């Protein structure tokens, strides 16, 4: 049994971080986080109509 101390330095405990967690954007803060498609970026009315029809609830037929 060895009584010599370990010569490798130990990593210190991680420092506590007191940043404001609300200042950082989470995945839920974006449309992509909610599962929305990326915008077409051209005002494509055919794509908008297709998306509307895809996402319309069944009771609005």
Quick summary:
The chain is an all-alpha fold and 61 residues long. It is 18% helix and 0% strand.
Describe the 3D structure.
This protein has 61 residues and is an all-alpha fold. Helices cover 18% and strands 0% of the residues. The protein has 1 helix and no strands. The protein has one helix at residues 45-55. The radius of gyration is 26 Å and the shape is rod-shaped.
Main features:
18% helix; 61 residues
Strand content: under 5%
Average pLDDT for all residues: 74
* SSE string: H
Separation of termini?
Answer: 79 Å
In DSSP terms (H or I, runs of 4 or more residues), the helix count works out at 1
Q: What is the percent of helical residues?
A: 10-25%
Largest sheet: none
- Structural class computed from helices and strand pairing: mainly alpha
Low-confidence region ranges? none
* Rg estimate, integer Å: 26 Å
Shape: rod-shaped
- The tally of beta strands, per DSSP, is 0
């Amino acid at each position: 049994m060895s009584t010599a101390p370990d010569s490798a330095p130990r990593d210190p405990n991680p420092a506590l971080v007191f940043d404001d967690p609300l200042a950082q954007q989470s995945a839920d803060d974006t449309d992509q986080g909610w599962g929305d498609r990326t915008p077409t970026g051209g005002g494509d009315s055919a794509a908008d109509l297709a998306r509307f029809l895809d996402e319309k609830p069944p009771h609005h037929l």
